[in-house]
């Protein structure tokens, strides 16, 4: 279906004028299209990953090899989504203030552009979709309809150490709260 602005009213969920290549920690949630449960099941408050879930975990852990400036922190695969913390420009402090993208671009003039959060998430989604498609063809994984991942993803800029610890705890405890999760689908 062709995008028609007057009808679809598609808006960015990103923070306006924020430079998503800026050093800091970011919490992301990436959901499967239509919240299809393709990566395993929650059983006794534990995630039991399918082969597809194991593949997604492997791809997630390989992403830093493609971007030397990033680190992945706490992460979990759920039946139909993932939660993870991505740290851009490893070693820099957490984001403390907002700077317009144009100011940061000027500061980096003449240097190799830092990857954006979108670059990292896009790479993950692309590689995992390719691998999942191979799994459908070669290993009889459940097929997906159209796209493996939803078009967008949720992100949150982590601004303090205490917030970082709370989000890590949320990620670790996510299987315990599966039935109350907004992404829950039987």
Number of strands: 6
Q: What is the CATH-assigned architecture?
A: 2-Layer Sandwich
- Rounded to the nearest angstrom, the distance between the terminal CA atoms is 29 Å
Give average pLDDT, whole number.
Answer: 83
Secondary-structure element order, N to C: HEEEHEEHHEH
Q: Which residue ranges are poorly predicted, with pLDDT under 50 across at least 5 consecutive positions? A: 8-12, 96-110
Helix-strand category: alpha+beta
CATH class wording: Alpha Beta
Shape: globular
Q: What fraction of the residues are assigned to beta strands by DSSP?
A: 15-25%
Tally of domains:
1
Q: Which range best describes the helical content: under 10%, 10-25%, 25-40%, 40-55%, 55-70% or over 70%?
A: 25-40%
Number of helices: 5
Q: Please compute the radius of gyration using only Cα atoms.
A: 17 Å
According to CATH, the homologous superfamily is Transposase IS200-like
Q: Any idea of the CATH topology?
A: Alpha-Beta Plaits
Question: Biggest sheet: strands, sense, closure?
Answer: 4 strands, antiparallel
* Biggest sheet: strand arrangement: 4-5-1-6
Secondary structure blueprint with pairings:
Layout: H1 5-8, E1 24-31, E2 40-43, E3 46-49, H2 51-62, E4 70-77, E5 81-88, H3 101-107, H4 117-139, E6 154-158, H5 161-173
Antiparallel strand pairs: 1-5, 1-6, 2-3, 4-5
Explained architecture:
The longest helix has 23 residues, at 117-139. This protein has a 4-stranded antiparallel β-sheet with strand order 4-5-1-6, sandwiched between helices. The chain is globular and about 40 Å long. 23% of the residues are buried. The chain starts with a helix and ends in a 13-residue tail after the last helix. Strand 4 and strand 5 (81-88) form a beta hairpin. It is an alpha+beta fold. It has a single domain, classed as Alpha-Beta Plaits (2-Layer Sandwich). Helix content is 32%, strand content 20%. The protein has helices spanning 5-8, 51-62, 101-107, 117-139, 161-173; strands spanning 24-31, 40-43, 46-49, 70-77, 81-88, 154-158. The protein contains 5 helices and 6 strands, in the order H-E-E-E-H-E-E-H-H-E-H.
